[in-house]
Amino acid sequence: MRFFPAALLVLAACSSPVAESASAGPPAAAGQSARHPVSGLAVVPLRITQGDTVHDFRVEVALSGEEQARGLMFRTEMAADEGMIFPYRPARPASFWMKNTVIPLDLIFVGPDGRIINIAANATPYSLDSIPSAGPVSAVLELNGGRAAELGIEAGATVAWEGVPR
Fold first, then answer.
1. What pTM did the predictor assign?
2. Quick one: which of 157, 113, 156, 116 has its CA closest to 133?
């Protein structure tokens, strides 16, 4: 996933990791500092709660402008329980594109209150079309295309993760 060039400049100027614990998501193993074998990015637990249903994922964290610009570009596969999260502080509108992104993705836009505000399902690989959030977001979560619908994840569900600035 790649940001538009103007958004990248804003991210480069604004992205600085904040030493703040994130939410009450699934517990992480004590002392665990997991890294993704392909990207080398930190991997953290993430939980989506839709009503009484809970879905747990392990997500790569794209914090820096460079990490966010690269996203899942050139990746040819991702496990069903994996994803990538792009945290923002402060919350702001976000717009993505699929340039050089090989696999279809669901883009899940998470509002400042931790609730999903909109989902762009099955984004088309390689597309340069803008995929915007419906308002300011504290994070964007990427999952395999169609995964949100498969699991019944919709706007209003809550998203919580650990070890990521919010």
1. 0.80
2. 116
Domain residue ranges of the chain, discontinuous segments joined by +: 2-14+39-161
Number of residues in the chain:
166
Nearest residue to 54 (alpha-carbon basis) of 157, 145, 166, 162: 157
Give me the CATH code for the 2-14+39-161 domain, please: 2.60.120.1140
pLDDT tens-digit series, residues 124-142 = 999 999 999 999 999 999 9
Name the residue among 119, 105, 104, 120 with its Cα closest to residue 157.
119
pLDDT tens per residue, range 69-112: 999 999 999 999 999 999 999 999 999 999 999 999 999 999 99
Instruction: Calculate the alpha carbon distances from 134 to 63, 71, 122 in Å.
Output: 22, 21, 17
